[in-house]
Amino acid sequence: MSAPAAAPLLTTPLNALHIELGARMVPFAGYSMPVQYQGPGMGLMAEHLHTRQAAGLFDVSHMGQLRLVGPDAAAAFESLMPVDVIDLPVGKQRYGLLLNDAGGIIDDLMFFRVAQDEIFVIVNGACKVGDIAHIQARIGQRCRVIPMPDHALLALQGPQAATALARLASGVEKLVFMTGGNFAIAGCDCFVTRSGYTGEDGFEISVPAAQADTLARALLAQPEVKPIGLGARNSLRLEAGLCLYGNDLDTTTTPVEAAIGWAMQKVRRTGGARAGGFPGADKVLAQLDNPASLTRKRVGLVALERVPVREHTELQTTGGQKIGEVTSGLLGPSFDKPIALAYVDPQHAAVGTRVHAIVRGKAVPMEVCATPFVPTRYYRG
Predict the structure, then answer these.
(1) Bridge partners for 115 per DSSP
(2) Would residue 237 count as lying in a domain?
(3) What is the pTM assigned to this prediction?
(4) Are 53 and 160 part of one and the same domain?
(5) To pair with 315 at 20 to 30 A between CA atoms, which of 1, 106, 120, 351?
């Protein structure tokens, strides 16, 4: 008996365009996705630097998009997450976390208050089937859960993103970080938010799949814009100190261990008007109220030698005792040093602490440092 064939890879609505542009396609989250583009001025390093200097266009259509509709949608969604959904004003976006009953992270996501009775949600591609099933099972009786598989998602990121996009959609430049609205762009019906996953100013654009190719070509026709693959998306988000689900966050990790307690608004914390009431609340709030109870904590690391330190690399004290593991790591193209996110024992989590990463049996000295590694440049008005 031969092994069962792997499921064929799904493709995004921009698949033909990627191939036309010379993309190197790789499997990612069940999709065939562009990791980088071939040709002069392209490749991982060049694409990363272009996004930091001008504007890059990313196809993120593998991600899950859905709408929650009904008068109880906000309260229902809030019952699944340790964040404030009810008080989010119409027109604003927020970062959220789906938790399991042990306080572990099922997924991280973005949600936008479209109207009093409607929330637009974007979840990670590798998690979307499970997320939608989880949301449907937990709150499907309280509101309508409407997946949007007929929509693509594009991200336009970089300091010149607003200039490029405003040429096609006047008024989009007035948006500030974590706000959004409906815009017609190159004849396409787009929902635009001023947000992203690179640490730069930029936009995420939801568009009907049938219009995605038209939109992408119109954006790529702008002189500031080049196509950017998933490789640079990863190095950009890591320099910005942003977590990648499946690497830096998972179902065994709580928001407090992951050092994303900032995502939990006061109203949902101990003493808040709507404290608790989310899955795993007892454990998560106990960790938040008593940080000494933590057994591990996420930190940023910078290597003191020019040796890239990859995920799953063991971390030790300078005396050789195991204290943790790297969850994401690479040579930061803008930072120009090897950087990493890692989980370590809390007593070794203070900024400035020296640790050793064990790379092919050799100790590489690293130092705990604050994140982001590269300052973020979100547009707040």
Answers:
(1) 118
(2) no
(3) 0.97
(4) yes
(5) 106
